[in-house]
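tool_call predict_complex ligand=pseudouridine-5'-monophosphate
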Amino acid sequence: MSTHLLVSDAVAAALADNRPVVALESTIISHGLPRPRNHAAAVEFEQILLDAGVTPATIAVLDGVPQIGLDAEGIRRIADEDLAKASVRDLPILAARGASGATTVAATAHLAAMAGIRVFATGGLGGVHRGASTTFDESADLSTLAVTPITVVSAGVKSVLDIAATLERLESLSVPVIGYGTKIFPSFWLTESAHVLDWSVDTAAEVAAIMRSQDELGHGQGIVVANAIPKEQQWDPAEHDRVLEEAFVAAEEAGVRGKAVTPFLLSYIVQASEGRSLEVNLDLARNNVRVAGKIATEWSQLNG
Ligand code: PSU
Ligand code: MN
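tool_result ok
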């Protein structure tokens, strides 16, 4: 293991004993959720795992050190400080400078895999942005999962992205996409998108079995588990469509580009929906954490 990583005692002990561990990202806390709800969410996601007998490993770079598992002060810092949004390419720069950053899905997956963690829960995966054929704006989340052996549980990708193109890219990158209890790919705040998947599973044990097979037959890529928010918890589709259209216009008018696009859209959408999208976002993230906990538990039993 790299001497550059700081693995918390709790996470190190769980990994050494082959007990279940789930990685959690910090960009969703720093840039994806508004203060002060973001702090409560970070604490709650960890507690959901602890209650299920799973060790949480929230990941961030603090003062140049990639940390796998944060203490209470670390959780407070990712929620309260204005941290840089850090993807994989930013990690060595932050480390060399002693700087701090909130890790995206890509950077979290990369660091978690380095530490030997195999399961990761997030809200939504990054993907191909609309208009990417001219802007080339495609999240490094996709290319990272092509080379990182970790199972990521998400509620699909946000409907602000080009979902069809995102699924095509995951196919090109040989990253399997598996629906959890559904064959319809979800679109984050909504239970469904227009896209039907090739594969679905009904249990966490099936995901663990696929992970084991992939270790033998794959080339070290990850797995995307798509966990849809239940219909009764989804955002009102009419309000969803209206607010998203407004958000695109606002981003265009504000001239937002590159890595600022996702945080801009998310915070605009929370405000324009008067917080209704936020409740859905929190609900789907909690659901993903629960499913990731089950998968990590099955995985540790399979290897026990
Ligand atoms: N989706 C969300 N909330 C988020 C993100 C995605 O619903 O906070 C974050 C994740 O950290 C993801 C990143 O990795 O945005 C993708 O950003 P970009 O599109 O700039 O790659
Ligand atoms: Mn981008």
